[in-house]
């Protein structure tokens, strides 16, 4: 899917597809374009995707849990290129700080009190063999009895 195909969608449909509204997407594009201009000022090959499509591929990866192979096939790139693009977009947005979540220590400093209940449901009781149970019922078969 290309950004050109979905940019004219109404905000509700755009958000259902990308997970963000038009204003948030535009803010992300501003951040990425400023980072891209600094990145490309040193030279190098032109990117295979526009910044808008790079962000869209990243949102597809994060929102839909698509594999790099599926995204790469959709954009006509290799898996390694898609991996590098997604990693760059994530790192750039996190480094900017606009779209970062607060850290654990920041949450602990807040005035809110969080109450969390954790239930371990992975342990299940296992029946132990009885005292005079035959060997081949104890879970280990040491022969054919």
CATH fold descriptor = Cyclin A, domain 1
Order of helices and strands: HHHHHHH
Query: Pairing-aware structural class of the strands and helices?
Result: mainly alpha
Helix content: 40-55%
Q: Choose one word for the global shape.
A: extended
Structure description:
This protein is an all-alpha fold and 145 residues long. The chain has a single domain, classed as Cyclin A, domain 1 (Orthogonal Bundle). The protein contains 7 helices and no strands. Helix 5 packs across helix 6.
Write a concise keyword list for the protein shown above.
145 residues; mainly alpha; Cyclin A, domain 1; 7 helices; extended
Structural topology:
Layout: H1 3-6, H2 11-18, H3 22-40, H4 51-64, H5 68-75, H6 79-96, H7 104-109
Helix pairs in contact: 3-6, 4-6, 5-6
Write a compact overview of the structure shown.
53% of the residues lie in helices and 0% in strands. It is mostly helical.
